[in-house]
Amino acid sequence: MGVELIFKIAAIGIVVSVLNQVLVRAGREEQAMLTTLAGLIVVLLIIVKEISFLFDTIKSIFNL
User: Do 50 and 5 contact (CB within 8 A), yes or no?
Assistant: First the structure.
């Protein structure tokens, strides 16, 4: 879970940055910004899912 999550987030960041640079060089700044925003939302959804899993684990440990 730990290292795989870091690699997944890093891969998304690399893909988004490459797409951003390509779109900026092509003169499509609006699409570049939307691509960056979409990448950020995807990473935040992944992190929220992992935090939810963490809270569920804590609840089960302490029998809450």
Answer: yes
What pTM was estimated for this model as a whole?
A: 0.81
Return the half-sphere exposure (C-beta side, CA atoms, 13 A cut-off) of residue 52. 6
Return averaged pLDDT per consecutive 10 residues of the chain, 64 residues in all. Answer: 90 96 95 96 96 93 86
Burial of 36 (C-beta count, 10 Å sphere; 0-12/13-18/19+): middle
Angle between the N-to-C axes of helices 29-62 and 2-25, in degrees from 0 to 180, rounded to the nearest 10: 170
- What does the block give as tokens for 42? 């995807």
